[in-house]
Amino acid sequence: FLLQPESTMRTSAWCLLLFGALLCGLVAVLLPTGGLGSAGLTRRLLPAYLRVHRLVAEFSRQLFGRSNKEGFAEKNAQNSCLYFLFDDTQLQRNRHLSILGTVFDVSESAFYKPGGEYEQFTGRDASRNFATSDTGAESGSFSDNLDGLSGAQLADLFEWQRFYFSKYKCVGYSRGRFYHPSLLETDYLRGMKAAADAHLARKSQLAENFPPCDATTIDGKTVVYCNGALNLDPNNVMPNTRYPRIFYNKFDATSGCACVLRDMRSDGRVAVYEACSPDALQCTVLRPPPPLQVGQCGNQIGSRFWDLALREHASVSRRGDFDDSLGTFFRQQPGEGQALKARAVLVDMEEGVVGELLKGRLRGVFDHSALITDVSGSGNNWAVGHCEYGLRHREALSESIRRCAEQCDCLQCFFLLHSMGGGTGSGLGTAILQLLRDQYPEVYRFVTAVYPSEDDDVITSPYNSVLAMRCLTDYADCVMPIDNACLAGIAQRVQDSGRTAAGSSAAAAGAAAVKGRQAIRRDEQHSGQPAAEPHGFRPLSPAR
Ligand SMILES: Nc1nc2c(ncn2[C@@H]2O[C@H](COP(=O)(O)OP(=O)(O)OP(=O)(O)O)[C@@H](O)[C@H]2O)c(=O)[nH]1
Ligand SMILES: [Mg+2]
C-alpha cells in the first residue's frame, strides 16, 4: 500500500499505520482501566481515524502536490463521510437512507421516523425512485438499479444526493451496486456519473445559446421579452441583442421561449411567435382557448392534467417563473399575490367531484366563476344531461365560455373532455358542443371522448354512448376516442413495470406521468425557502 502510486491508497495506508499506532496506545492505556466498552469502541474511534486521515491527506497533498482524485477520499475530504461500510441488514437496523450508495443518517428527521411521510426511503437504497420521482407510495417498489435511466434523470439523482449531503450527516457507504467492499466506487457508479455529467454539459451548452426569455403580464396578456427590459427600440440593436423565439428543445422534449442572437434566428430549433415580427424584441403570446371538462370523468382526468402541467413546469423552470409555456394554460390573477388560475371551465351536474377538486391541493388554481355545477347529477341518463341540464344551464354555460374565450388571443378551437358512458359527460357534453356550434360556428371543436370498457359498471353506458356518438358526428370537427379498457391496461402495465423497477426508461417515465409525478419539486433544494417536506410539492404560487 505504501508504494501504491495512487495517492488515495497511499494516504489511507499511511493513515491506517498511524491510526493503528494510536489505537495500540489507547488500548494500552484505557483497557486496563475499563475506559472503553467494546460496543462503543468503533463508534468512538472513527472520528479520531477520520481526523488522522484528513491530516495525512493534507500532508500528502502538500508533500506530493497532488490531490486525492479517486473514490471515497475526495468525497470524505469534502463531505465528512464516515468510513463505514453498511450491508442491507445494518442499513435497515439503523434506519439510514442510502442514495447512490452513500448512506445518510436521517434518524433525527420526523419525515423518516416510523409513521413519517418518507419512512419508506429508510433502510434501503432507493436511488431509482429518486431518479424517477416515484415515492413508491402507489407502486410499492424500491430499487437502486439505474439501468435505462436518461441523462436528465441521472443528473437529477446526483442533485438529490447533493441535497442529502447538505442536510444530513453522511455516515458511510452501502456495499453493492455502487461501492466495492474496499469503499472504492464501482464502474457502475462511475458510468452513471459520466452519463449525468455529459447531460449537464450539453444542457449548459444549450442554456448558453438559448437562454430563457423573461415574461410578464400586460393587460391580461403574457408578453415575453429579452435583453432584460421591455419596450427597447428594435432599430437600435447591438451585436449581443437577443430576440424572443419559440424554442423546441428536443434534448429535454420541452418547448418554451428562448432568447437567440441575430445569427441564430434561422436555427431549425426556433420559430417566430405567431403575430410577432421577426425583428421584434418582445412578443405577446397568443393563448389558446381553455379546455372544457364535463362530468366526473372529464373533471377527474382534467384535474390530473393541471396537476401534471404544474409539476412539469416546476421541473423545467426551477425558479417557478411565470413564463409563456405556463401562460398557455394558466393566467395570473391581477392583484396581490397574482395567483395562478387554470384556464379551464369545469362542468358537472353533481357537486362531488368538483367539490373534491376545490378542497384538494389544487383548490386555489380553479377559478370559481368558471365552475358550473348542479346537485343531483344526470343519473347516468343521456337525456337528462342533454335535454334537462342542457337547457337549464345554457345561459350560464354560454356566459362562462364567452368569458374564457375573450381571454384568449387566437380562438381557433374549443377542446372538450368527457366520458361517453355517464349522463352528464355524454348528454350535457354534447349539448355544449351544440351550443358551441351555434355560437361559434367558425371555431373548430375538438373532443376527447372516453369510451366505456366491456366491464363498465354503468349499465346504461352503451345507450349513452350511442346517443352521444350521433351528436359527435353532427357537432364535433375532430373526435379523439379513448378506450377506457386500453387506458386501464396501459396504466396497469406501466405500474407493473414500475414495480419490477428495472423496466425501460420509457416505461418508468410513463409510470411517473400516469401517476402525475413526473416532476417532483425539490422544495428545499432550489428555493432557499423553508418547505414543508423534502419530497413534496411547493405550495402553488405564481411568478416565483
Ligand atoms: N378513465 C376514466 N374513466 C372514468 C373516470 N370516471 C368515470 N369514468 C368513466 O366514465 C363513465 C361514467 O361517466 P361519468 O363521467 O362518471 O358520469 P358523469 O358524466 O358524471 O354523469 P352522471 O354521473 O350521470 O351525472 C364510465 O364509463 C366510467 O368508467 C375516470 O376518472 N377515469
Ligand atoms: Mg357524475
Description:
The protein has 544 residues and is α/β, with parallel strands linked by helices. The protein folds into four domains: 7-79, no CATH class; 84-207 and 503-544, Cytochrome b5-like heme/steroid binding domain (Flavocytochrome B2, Chain A, domain 1, Roll), CATH 3.10.120; 210-284, no CATH class; 291-500, Rossmann fold, CATH 3.40.50.1440. The protein has 17 helices and 19 strands. The strands form five sheets. Strands 16-15-12-17-18-19 form a six-stranded parallel sheet. A five-stranded mixed sheet has the order 1-5-3-2-4. A hairpin with a 4-residue loop joins strand 8 (242-249) and strand 9. Residues 295-297, 300-301, 348-350, 377-380, 419, 421-425, 450, 452, 456, 458, 461, 484, 487 line the site of guanosine-5'-triphosphate (GTP). The site of guanosine-5'-triphosphate has 25 residues, from helix 8, helix 13 and helix 15.
Name the features.
binds magnesium ion, microtubule, alpha/beta, disordered C terminus, Flavocytochrome B2, Chain A, domain 1, binds guanosine-5'-triphosphate, globular
